[in-house]
Amino acid sequence: MSRRPQGLTAGMLIGPATFLVLGALVAPLALLARYSLNRYDRANFMVEALTPENYLRFLDDPFYTGVLWTTLSIALVTTTLCLLLGFPIAYRLARSQSRWKSVGVLLVILPLFIGSTVRALGWMGVLGRGGLVDSVVGAVSPGSSFPLLYTSFAVVVGILSINLPYMVLTLQSVIEGIDSRIEEAADSLGADPSRRFWHVVLPLALPGLATGGVLVFILAMNAYATPLLLGGARFQMMAPMLFREYAVNNNWPFAAAIAFILMITTLTLTAVSSAFVQRRYKAA
Amino acid sequence: MASMATAERIGKAAAAPRVAHARVSVAGVLVWALIVTGILAMAVPLVMTAYISFFRDAVVVFPPSGYSSSWYTRIMEFPRFGDALGTSLRIAAMATLGSLALGIPASLALVRYRFIGRGVLNVLLLSPLTVPGVVIGLSVYVAVVETEIATEFPLIGSDIVLVLAHLLITVPWVVRLCVANLVGLDRSIEEAAANLGARPWSVLWRVTLPMMRQGIVAAALFAFIVSFENIEMTLFLIAPGQTTLPISILQYLEYKVDPLVAAVVMVQTLVIASLLLLLDRYVKLSRIV
Fold first, then answer.
1. Which residues, including other chains, have CB under 8 Å from residue A7's CB and lie 6 or more apart?
2. Which of A102, A214, A238, B24 has the most other CB atoms within 10 Å of its CB?
3. What is the rounded distance in angstroms from the CA atom of residue A113 to the CA atom of residue B223?
4. Helix%, strand%, coil% for chain B, nearest 5
5. Lowest mean pLDDT: which of A113-117, A229-233, B62-66?
6. A239: which residues sit within 8 A by CB, 6+ positions away?
């Protein structure tokens, strides 16, 4: 009997948020999808049409597919590095009993508040022409220079330093959820630390690794400021290219097509990886 | 060389009784190397920015000809940063309050009620997190332009549009953190209150919400961060004279790197750091994030 009022209350509670997402995300995305099928015209900017030519233009041109490929490889490399570097830090933090633990967590949280431009600024000082590395190399062997800025290395390092705190925080909460008595049991049953890690800790932390990996991968695919500032004018990734099509070339239909290609690529890869982890997790 | 370094490590670690196998110690050294690399990756850019902000020269060269703190006092001569900071704080504050108002009830519905379409709504409310920021930005922009054409009401660059767009990216975080918090709470306390005659409204107000305090604080914190540091989406929605701080810094950096912009960034960082430390005294951050 109490079903109906319950459903009504729930509807009133969740209604406003649902309305927001439908009105400000789903409807605009539908509109953007429609735009992506329009035609661009130098004189009139956008001409109403129903054509796949924006998508075909992207897929046919090796320049655009190359940008997609660069974006994917940068995202994969940074995600791998985040997993590799994030896990040990997260594990230490999660298992720490020290009174400095909250200081450590605070030091990881703090960079989250400081926008990506700040990290880019610091790396520009380290890697740029006349920057720290360049000057040290120049002092050691005069006449030579070693500018690392405006390379894919700079972009990877920049994205890594932004995404790593997200990974550490995600993994830390997951590892704290793992009962430490399970590890103690492994110890007392004679497992050495590496065996304990591969057979006990890692399988239990796998869903957390997947969550953190997906989060960091999406952030890297989406990166705007870092490739722009650390990659320079020649280095192209999807997000800056999309913005340039919109702001500089005023080609909204093509920008819309880029948006959907970026989104579909990201969603497909994250769905595939979570399905893979879920299957392995069930099998294990 | 590597084995000598390892031998040294073993020698240092000999005080710890558990170190028995050399193989384990190699792994241990590797783990420490990873930890140090990770910490360097996070810390170096911030330390470097702080260092540059004290250079005396207007151009960044190593080593600098001298140090001074004059850039901090000169920030006020550049109103573009002050105005942008004001806009950023205003938008982030409104988006945080709004996202709590929308997100907390939604998470209550998702956890405490059973209804048709619950799973779908859960996915829908979290979906803005999986859409790239530039895609959200472009689509909201396009929708706003269509609305402007239909209503002839200027919207681009207005607070309404910025706050609405920021709600889109902050509500999912509030829902996510509050749902996680609610799932971990003992429901029997609410049931006890109801059994003792408390009306649903006062159960919510006096039992559920106070119990959710840590989740709500964490949600507010995250909402504020996400809104305050957003660049990708906001980029499409700003207008001349209405710019957020990260975007005005970005635009400056595209043009040049100097100690002034480093000082701006450090002031922003110090303000936020002190707020965080204050918050940490109230609720332990290590427990809520």
1. B113, B115, B116
2. A238
3. 11
4. 75, 0, 20
5. A113-117
6. A221, A222, A223, A224, A227, A262, B132, B133, B134, B232
Reported pTM = 0.82
Chain-chain contact of B38 with A106 (C-beta, under 8 angstroms):
no
Give the confidence band of A71 by pLDDT, cuts at 50, 70, 90.
Answer: very high
**A190 dihedral zone (left: phi>0; alpha: psi -120 to 50; beta):** left
B29, B6 Cβ separation under 8 angstroms: yes
Judge contact between A104 and B39, C-beta under 8 A: no
- In Å, how far is A35's CA from the nearest CA of chain B? 9
From A49's Cα to the closest Cα of chain B, the distance in A is 17
Contact criterion met (CB below 8 Å) for A241 and A67 = yes
Residues 223-252 of A with CB under 8 A from B: 224-225, 228-229, 238-239, 242-243, 246, 252
* Least confident window among A100-104, A262-266, B41-45, B275-279: B275-279
Sorted by where each begins, the domain ranges of chain A are: 51-283
Residue with tokens 């604080």: B217
Cβ within 8 Å, pair A263-B284: no
* Residue in B closest to A22 by C-alpha: B124
Tell me the average confidence (pLDDT) per consecutive run of 10 residues in chain B, 289 residues long: 48 46 71 90 88 84 80 80 87 95 93 86 89 92 91 84 95 89 83 86 86 84 84 89 87 86 84 71 58
Question: A274 and chain B: CB distance < 8 Å anywhere?
Answer: no
Residues of A in contact with B228 (CB under 8 A): 113, 115
Contact at CB, A6 and B132, closer than 8 angstroms: no
The Cα angle at residue B72 between residues B68 and B74, in degrees rounded to 5: 100
Name the residue in chain B with its Cα closest to that of A32. Answer: B139
H or E element in which residue A253 lies: helix A252-283
Beta strand residue intervals within B155-217, DSSP E: none
CATH homologous superfamily, domain A51-283: MetI-like (1.10.3720.10)
| Residues across chain A | 284
**Tokens 């840590």 sit on residue:** B214
Please state the CATH superfamily assignment of the domain spanning residues B76-288 in this structure.
Answer: MetI-like (1.10.3720.10)
Q: Where are the alpha helices (DSSP H) in A189-231?
A: 193-196, 202-221, 225-226
Distance CA B248, CA B231 (A): 10
Under 8 Å between Cβ of A221 and A73: no
**Residue B49: closest C-alpha in chain A:** A122
Q: Do A161 and B42 touch (CB under 8 A)?
A: yes
In angstroms, rounded to a whole number, what is the distance separating the alpha carbons of residues B238 and B162?
8
**Nearest 10 degrees: Cα torsion B31, B37, B38, B39:** 110
